[in-house]
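Page 47, continued from p. 46.
Same chain as before, 293 aa.
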Amino acid sequence: MSLGRRTTEQKTSPGKAGARDSNEPSETFSEHELETIQEREKLRAPLIYEVLRREGDQEMERPVASLWWSGVAAGLSISFSLLTQAILRLRLPDTPWRPLVADFGYPVGFLMVVLGRQQLFTENTITAVLPVVARPGWSNLRRLGRLWSVVLAANLAGTLIAALFCTFTPVLAPEIRGAMLDISRESVSGGATLLFFRAIASGFLIAAMVWLIPNAEGAAFLVITMMTYVISIGGFAHVVAGSFEAFMLLVNARLGWLQALTGFGLPVLAGNIVGGTALFTLISYAQVASEVP
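Result:
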């Protein structure tokens, strides 16, 4: 901070002839160099907010059919997280460090969804909520409810289709399917209260990932990988990725519908919303509220 003050003082010092505003470019840099500096400047928090708010506005204006099929695609894509985890678990020796390596399979589905610009419900706990926070009203709330309901239903439809495909077709070797069921049983266990709080952490991390991506530039791959890897190694619960695990157990008669709904689905959904919206999004908006229109 002291260096920044000294630099400003040097630029605005009255003892120098032709002093100018500190925001004007220095004559020591060429035009090309100034363009390079501007390109490498990081987005300030208000700019990140505005990028995500506009994205949320655009998503809420999309036709229902577009949202639906994008959400179904996301549900199908997210199934590759569990599949990759299961394959890595089978191929690695049974050692204490095996889970740390096998869990690197978990980001695969998220990378497909986020980089493919598919609709994922938990991403919309920040992007679609920011326009509502900025301009509260029934119109925006109605648009948010429409987006959330369509995308969540589509995500669940996609994960159910993926679970049926993995179970009733010969696409997977029996040992891979068995490993997927073992991981799924571990993920949905623990009870509604525990899963609710674990889902809060997961919702917060996904919202943080969305907030970081505009500044990530070419490092978006790493941001998505590391944030979702933390979800996996932390044992946190994600409603869409977890729904594929729950559906795998359901269609293989390892879990009942009521238990899947009340013991997993509803508490994890509530926790993701609390973590992504009530915590991260509202805090993020609070830090820029006085700087944006």
